[in-house]
Write a structure and sequence with these properties.
The chain is of the alpha+beta class. The protein contains twelve helices and nine strands. The protein has a domain of 161 residues. A four-stranded mixed β-sheet has the order 2-8-7-5. A three-stranded antiparallel β-sheet has the order 1-4-3. The longest helix is centred in the middle third of the chain and has 24 residues. It is globular.
Length: 330
């Protein structure tokens, strides 16, 4: 079994036993972050995420219990006994206090499993559970917007989402989208429209068709080349010679596809070892995921748990045995 430590946390202390009770000390996990656009963004959205956990009777999201500003000059005097070397700049920092859970990264957990049956079970149940989490966010007008192999963790055999610093509450008035795209580091889990918007706001200019073709071809080469997709960029002619605000409104028509796009990219990466398999379920599953990663957001379609359940219903005994065999030899 791989280590269950989630390495973006710095564990500094245990909270004291509550006065007047015989309960054992409750362990906390502490994380120091820079006081910047994204940490403040996560603090703003944190209450809404906590409410979703509370209202739905199970923990789908791992969010901090509290946050406080922390200055370097205060480090030595706090009860946390923090090492000053952890904070390497003179900028103000923020201390986030999380409940201490036994967590492991989802992909690392899958890789550690010696039982091929458990691997397949966790692969399928994990996807079902993560679709439910995305659906819960979407129904509450929230985009996680940073779903990748480092933000999906496993707790008691259930995948949960963490790190909401890049998340967006669609209902928030006055959200600074230009600053978001100016500062956001993009990766293969972000859809291509993010790259177009970032290019536009970074260069402070309208997009030409040449700009769009260049960006999309580079994006395809870097992230989607293995998926054998056609590069049909006709949809993105809508982005030419338009101000950033107009292109943002066009992109936001499809915000409900963004988390599913990222989840599909995660699973395509996990299923990479199965891509040479002729197993019907794996073949159908990958086709479904590829469809959700279409360059054209208008053709991605919304995630559907029903479609996935129908696929599961069509797994016969032969398919399942092949899955187990392929998992054993992956």
């Amino acid at each position: 079994m791989l280590s269950s430590t989630i390495y973006f946390f710095h564990d500094f202390s245990e909270s004291e036993t509550k006065k007047g009770t015989d309960t054992k000390p409750v362990k906390d996990a502490h994380h120091i972050v820079s006081n910047n656009f994204f940490s403040i963004n996560e603090i703003r959205i944190a209450n809404k995420i906590r409410d979703l956990n509370a209202k739905n009777g199970m923990q789908r999201f791992y969010i901090f219990d509290s946050s406080k500003r922390l200055k370097i000059g205060e480090i030595g005097s706090t009860h946390l006994h923090l090492d000053p070397n952890i904070v390497k700049s003179n900028a103000n920092r923020i201390l986030l206090t999380f409940p201490k859970l036994d967590l492991v990264y989802f992909d690392a957990y899958l890789a550690s499993l010696s039982s091929s049956k458990k691997y397949i079970y966790q692969l399928i149940e994990g996807y079902r559970s993560l679709l439910g989490s995305i659906g819960l966010l979407v129904s509450n007008q929230i985009i996680h917007n940073s779903l990748n192999c480092n933000t999906i963790v496993l707790h008691k055999d259930k995948p949960i989402l963490t790190n909401f610093s890049k998340s967006i509450d669609i209902t928030e008035a006055g959200f600074n989208w230009s600053q978001y795209f100016l500062l956001r580091k993009l990766d293969r889990f972000c859809p291509v429209e993010f790259y177009l918007l970032q290019y536009q706001v970074t260069n402070n200019q309208e997009l030409s068709m040449y700009n769009i073709e260049t960006i999309i071809k580079e994006f395809f080469k870097d992230f989607l080349n293995d998926l054998k997709l056609d590069i049909n960029i006709s949809y993105f002619t809508k982005y030419t010679n338009k101000p950033f605000a107009a292109n943002l409104l066009e992109a936001l028509k499809y915000w409900k596809t963004w988390d599913n796009y990222a989840l599909s990219m995660v699973y395509l990466e996990i299923l990479n070892d199965f891509k040479r398999s002729d197993n019907k379920f794996i073949s159908d599953f990958m086709k479904l995921l590829v469809g959700y990663t279409n360059l054209d957001p208008s053709k991605r379609g919304l995630f559907s748990l029903t479609l996935f359940e129908e696929m599961l219903q069509h797994i016969d005994l032969k398919d399942f045995r092949e899955l187990i065999s392929n998992a054993t030899n992956k």
